[in-house]
């Protein structure tokens, strides 16, 4: 998932041990399912994982489908994701509204089919940053309205980085400003260092990643602070990426090349998608 998820040893900066009142939790996401055999090793580091409801960006299939029970049994919480439309697919405001509503119904159907309970937060993956154009906002808000009406909660994954070529607009703030009374959960991407810490992992159980509010989006409940591969135009000065530019988790054999994106959240189950 990208805004447009040594030889291969992971060097780790150390997250500080935070006061008990300042809880944040580490998670990962990636476009391809990591495999049942890797779940226990990954759960030693991560509290939750992204989970796609449709084909991730650039993918022809969704390899996460059918694995919800295995992921939950391994102890993970969820970031439930639905891949949204790019601007080029939205021909008009009216067309964007129809697509948003149709895609939302598909997201809800997929969430139910996968076994996610009512009130699960489904995050719409908004890949393009900067100021949202009228067609984009029509699509987003139609999607949010249908997901909410169906008994789920709506979230959005979007840029938290000021767009230098667009009056320093921050996409998350732009969407929130015109969302009216809609209740939307925000997952901000900001992999620039600072504020991002780079490809870093906690040293022990009392160490926590930085709070989502430190992303630059004060109202974010989730912060994606590292991507694979490292974005050279944004994250060139970020530490601890591997030589090939990816971020790899501890506890997984380097030969698997199991690259990930890193997230901080205010909950061990940001989508509230667990059933037990």
Description:
The structure is a single chain. With 276 residues, the chain is α/β, with parallel strands linked by helices. The protein is 22% helix and 16% strand. The protein contains six helices and eight strands; from the N terminus they run βαβαβαβαβαββαβ. It has helices at residues 39-43, 68-73, 93-114, 134-149, 171-177, 232-235, and strands at 25-29, 48-52, 77-83, 121-125, 153-159, 184-189, 222-226, 261-265. The chain has an eight-stranded mixed β-barrel. Helix 4 (134-149) links the parallel strand 4 (121-125) and strand 5. Helix 3 packs parallel to helix 4 (134-149). The chain is globular and about 50 Å long. The chain starts with 24 loop residues before the first strand and ends in an 11-residue tail after the last strand. Mean pLDDT is 91; it is low at 2-14 and 16-21.
**Which bin fits the share of residues in helices?**
10-25%
Unreliable stretches, pLDDT < 50, 5 or more residues? 2-14, 16-21
Mean pLDDT: 91
Q: Percent of residues in beta strands?
A: 15-25%
Distance N to C terminus: 28 Å
The secondary-structure class comes to alpha/beta
Question: If strands are numbered along the chain, what order do they take across the biggest sheet?
Answer: 1-2-3-4-5-6-7-8
Q: Total number of β-strand segments?
A: 8
Secondary-structure blueprint of this entry?
Layout (H helix, E strand, L loop, with lengths): L24 E5 L9 H5 L4 E5 L15 H6 L3 E7 L9 H22 L6 E5 L8 H16 L3 E7 L11 H7 L6 E6 L32 E5 L5 H4 L25 E5 L11
Parallel strand pairs: 1-2, 2-3, 3-4, 4-5, 5-6, 6-7
Antiparallel strand pairs: 1-8, 7-8
Helix pairs in contact: 3-4
């Amino acid at each position: 998932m990208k805004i447009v998820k040594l030889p291969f040893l992971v060097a780790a900066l150390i997250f500080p041990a935070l006061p008990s009142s300042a809880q944040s939790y580490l998670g990962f996401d990636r476009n391809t399912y990591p495999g049942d055999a890797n779940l226990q090793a990954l759960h030693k580091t991560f509290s939750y994982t992204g989970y796609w409801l449709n084909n991730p960006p650039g993918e022809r299939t969704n390899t996460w489908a059918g694995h919800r029970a295995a992921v939950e049994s391994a102890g993970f919480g969820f970031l439930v994701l639905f891949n949204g439309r790019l601007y080029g697919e939205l021909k008009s405001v009216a067309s964007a509204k129809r697509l948003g509503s149709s895609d939302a119904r598909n997201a809800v159907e997929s969430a139910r089919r996968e076994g996610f309970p009512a009130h699960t937060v489904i995050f719409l993956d908004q890949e393009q940053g900067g100021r949202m154009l009228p067609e984009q906002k029509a699509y987003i808000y139609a999607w949010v309205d249908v997901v909410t009406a169906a008994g789920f909660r709506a979230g959005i994954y979007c840029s938290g980085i000021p767009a230098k070529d667009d009056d320093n607009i921050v996409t998350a703030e732009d969407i929130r400003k015109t969302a009216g009374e809609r209740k939307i959960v925000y997952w901000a991407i900001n992999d620039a260092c600072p504020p991002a810490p780079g490809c870093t992992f906690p040293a022990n159980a009392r160490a926590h990643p930085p709070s989502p509010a430190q992303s630059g989006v004060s109202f974010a409940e989730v912060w994606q602070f590292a991507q694979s591969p490292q974005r050279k135009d944004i994250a060139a000065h970020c530490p601890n990426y591997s030589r090939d530019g990816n971020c790899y988790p501890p506890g997984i054999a380097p030969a698997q090349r199991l690259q990930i994106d890193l997230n901080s959240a205010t909950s061990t189950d940001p989508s509230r998608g667990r059933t037990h």
